[in-house]
Specification:
By secondary structure, the protein is of the alpha+beta class.
């Protein structure tokens, strides 16, 4: 009996000791509103582990953190908790442009210092818990035994609590231009092959890899979004899925030799983000990604302005015109060809008369700028040729008179927007960049649309590797020296860097309107993008196609998979400070009453309210134009018609507004009758209610302008 008592006492002491040692390496924080709780610990192998819950529900089950290093024992295990610091931060800041006038940045923070005692080195993992989710990153202080290191892989896990529904695209190193797939996590492996084949991927890394931002929904109605913020000097993160355990794990984009990152301390990783809500509208309204980025890097931002533009672009996309001046590719050598002696193909779109036509249309309808693509030498012989030196970005074709056109635009109160297609030769672009930006400054250009079509040069690099990501940011910061705004296409998906560098006024980085001419986007595509691609920053989606049947083309061709009214709604649901009216002037001239909404809608906002939202199904948003009392509302749906009913209680209670509703016609259908629409006008107040029907892949747009005395006398209540 005595021996038994001794054994029991010993076991109790061991359990108590184990409990105390576990508690010694366990830390936790809650969000400011108390809804989220983060637990952090170091397990018996010395592996960092975190867990996230929301209102007592598991969002991320216990998940390991760490980095595998090349030719090194790595930063995966053997850690002990050396220090844990908690703090609280609360500020309100004003973006240069955005969906809202002010943003609150409020979080509780836990910074844990982990020591690998045997190797005499340490790292910090910093957690920030907001009212809308979690951000965490790795920090590497400067130290004797961790100076230069090469990342072989980052192993940040996100263990899901169930087989959630996900909206995903394949994990591709070079493009995000995919249609989305909706499926259970357990179905991704089976569906991946068809998704890749259907979208003609360039390079995928894994049969179970997906890209961020990844939007999910749990069986009990919780919305979860995984992404990253502040992607600087680091490779873009994809997510590999263990579909048996339902665990996502980070997978970085490699460089040409397969390495994932070259680091020198002191340095840090981007933030890994988990945005969570019971309400889909709060996912769309979240500003956590922006809040995890540094404040604006520029002291003077007066030159950065939101832009509404048109452009010589859509006719080339649809094949009506060409970027190239001649079809004689064999005689074209940049800097050597005498284009005056080369036979023009007769379809070159960027010619003086056509550009003047666009300038006239922009001036007559209140647009800020005119984008012109294909103005410069080199378009005949570059795509798919892996040529290092293609464009010099300053030499125009014979039928594009830079000085004359800029003077003509200036006389009309319009600017021309520059276009730089780098042909993915980033080395060539950088060697010409100062000269190209100076050329813009000398000729009155203050915005550029850059492109990175094709395989990256240096050969073997990928669009989302550390080296190329550094190039994209280099281009933005270099442009700022010349007071130029950048709209980068085919670049890495945004991660909130527009807060720090607000001249990054737009990106493509997803499947945009151009694909409507390449087979079409799925009707639910634009109901998903705000939950995925737009989480990191605005997209140059290029909406506003009115000729949805592309009637100027003959024979079999694509068509736009929306109604005309939905094209109007996209100016609200697809937020961007850079909005294009993408169709041809003659298309708008056939529907000038509907075009009025594009003329009226703002591009910068004081307030935004998401009225209704469900990923893959529908979105309705109301926005208040910057510095005014005017509101605009847009609503879209997927292939399923629906009735949208909402109150106007966001309006000022003591004011009367003129409401103009642009809605699908009674017989509208995106396939059978896409251009059927109706316009209603009348008076409304904050007590009014709007009820409107959305057709299959349809939408509506609503302008709410403060009424004048004359309006109140002449107009009746909107019914």
């Amino acid at each position: 009996m005595k021996n038994l008592k001794t054994l029991v006492a010993t076991l109790l002491c061991l359990l108590l000791s184990f409990s105390m040692s576990t508690q010694a390496v366990a830390e936790s924080i809650t969000s400011p509103n108390g809804h989220f709780k983060l637990n952090f610990s170091v397990n018996e192998k010395g592996e960092p582990v975190y867990q996230l819950s929301y209102k007592g529900k598991d969002v991320v089950k216990p998940s390991k953190l760490g980095l595998e290093l090349k030719d090194d024992q790595g930063l995966m295990a053997g850690f002990s908790l050396a220090e844990a610091k908690t703090s609280t931060f609360d500020e309100t800041w004003a973006p240069v442009w955005g969906e809202v006038k002010q943003i609150r940045n409020h979080y509780n923070e836990l910074a844990v210092t982990l020591s690998q005692k045997e190797l005499e080195r340490a790292i910090v993992i910093r957690f920030r818990l907001f009212n809308d989710g979690l951000g965490f990153r790795y920090e590497f202080p400067q130290q004797k035994n961790l100076n230069y290191f090469v990342i072989k892989e980052e192993h940040s896990q996100f263990a899901m609590a169930g087989d959630h529904t996900a909206f995903w695209i394949p994990g591709d190193y070079d493009t995000q231009e995919y249609d989305y797939t909706k499926s259970k996590l357990s179905e991704i492996r089976r569906l991946m092959k068809s998704a890749v084949t259907e979208n003609a991927s360039q390079q995928t890394f894994s049969p179970t890899g997906v890209q961020t931002a990844l939007q999910m929904k749990t069986a009990d109605g919780l919305y979860i979004n995984l992404h990253e913020a502040a992607l600087v000097n680091y490779a873009c993160m994809h997510l590999n899925l263990d579909d048996k355990a339902m665990v996502f794990e980070s997978w970085l984009t490699p460089d040409a030799v397969g390495d994932k990152g070259y680091m020198q301390t002191p340095c840090k990783s981007p933030w890994r983000t988990v945005i969570v809500s019971e309400d889909a509208r709060e996912i769309l309204a979240s500003k956590m990604t922006l809040n995890l980025n540094d404040p604006c890097a520029y002291s003077d931002v007066s030159w950065i302005k939101p832009v509404k533009y048109i452009g010589v672009w859509w006719e080339m996309i649809t094949g009506k015109g060409t970027w190239a001046y001649t079809d004689d590719v064999y005689s074209v050598k940049l800097g050597e060809t005498d284009y005056a002696k080369t036979k023009p193909n007769g379809r070159h779109s960027a010619n003086n008369e056509k550009v003047k036509r666009y300038i006239d249309f922009a001036a007559a309808n209140g647009f800020d700028q005119v984008l012109v693509e294909g103005w410069n030498e080199g378009w005949e012989d570059w795509f798919g040729k892996s040529k290092d030196y293609v464009f010099d970005f300053v030499t125009p074709y014979p039928d594009f008179d830079v000085k004359m056109l800029n003077a003509y635009a200036k006389s009309k109160g319009v600017k021309i927007m520059m276009h730089h297609e780098s042909s993915s030769s980033v080395r060539n672009y950088e060697r010409h960049m100062d000269k190209a930006y100076q050329f813009m400054a000398d000729n009155g250009y203050n915005a550029v649309k850059s492109g990175y079509v094709g395989n990256i040069i240096p050969r073997g690099e990928h669009h989302y590797s550390q080296y190329i990501n550094n190039h994209y940011l280099y281009a933005v910061k270099k442009a700022a020296e010349y007071k130029i705004c950048v709209n980068a296409h085919e670049a890495v998906r945004p991660t909130g860097l527009c807060r720090t560098y607000p001249n990054l006024i737009g990106n493509e980085s997803a499947r945009g309107t151009e694909y409507e001419a390449f087979g079409g986007n799925k009707p639910f595509h634009t109901t998903i993008l705000p939950f995925t691609r737009l989480i990191g920053g605005p997209m140059d989606y290029t909406p506003g196609i009115f000729d949805t049947k592309l009637s100027f083309l003959s024979g079999d061709h694509s068509f736009v998979h929306t109604t005309l009214a939905k094209q109007l709604a996209l100016y609200l649901t697809m937020y961007s400070p850079l909005q294009m009216a993408a169709d041809l002037p003659e298309s708008y001239e056939r529907y000038m009453d509907a075009f009025q909404f594009i003329k009226d809608v703002a591009v910068d906002w004081d307030e935004s309210q998401y009225i209704e939202a469900e990923p893959g199904d529908y979105i309705t948003v109301a926005r208040k134009a910057k510095g005014t009392n005017n509101w605009f509302v847009g609503g879209i749906t997927n292939e399923n018609p629906r009735l949208s009913t909402f109150k106007l209680d966001f309006l000022d209670a003591d004011k009367v507004y003129v409401a103009t509703l642009y809605a699908d016609g009674k017989d509208a259908d995106y396939i059978k009758n896409p251009t059927s629409y109706q316009i209603k006008k009348g008076l409304v107040t904050a007590k009014s209610k709007i009820s409107t029907r959305l057709a299959s892949s349809g939408g509506f747009a609503l302008s709410l302008i403060e009424a004048t005395k004359a309006d109140k006398k002449s107009l009746k209540k909107l019914k």
